[in-house]
Amino acid sequence: MSVRFDWYQSEAKVVITVLLKNAADKNYKVEIEAQRVHMTADGYELDLKLLHPIVVERSSHKAYPSKVEITLGKETGVRWENLEQKEKAVPAAPALAQAKNWDRLVSEEEKIDDKEAKGEAALNNLFKKIYSTSSPEVQKAMNKSFQESGGTVLSTNWGEVSKDKVTVKPPEGTEFREWEK
Known about the structure:
Order of helices and strands: EEEEEEEHHHHH
Shape: elongated
Oligomer: single chain
Strand order of the largest sheet: 1-2-7-6
Structural class: alpha+beta
Number of strands: 7
Distance between the termini: 79 Å
Largest sheet: 4 strands, antiparallel
Number of helices: 5
Radius of gyration: 32 Å
């Protein structure tokens, strides 16, 4: 008869909790191997083929009144997706073979966005691109000029902007008014 169990993990270990009352009275026995855990008790059996190898020397088990806790030391700090191997387990291929080139995907997505953008969206994309690819001095100049001018000036020249407060320059045909404070 099989037993109910649950498991959790940290970076260094995997803990399997087997729900079995009075395990010590039921002559429980746990065998821990590099990729297998086998537990038997009177009329109960649990056999797990582990997804990743473990370090047997850093593994242990302990019986409590309502459970048996099996602690397995991980060989590597890899996060386990499952506790057990699938029935038809295929050896894990190196991650590099299936890795996606995220930089390429992002640049393709940005190109699509740039092509689809029109009007104000295209202008905002241009400013974002200028800001993100600029030096810290240019970024400071853009921030300072935009804030001090109330959004009417956007300068990339830090040498000019750093000297004085940036004056408000509203578009032709409009006037700038300060709100009452």
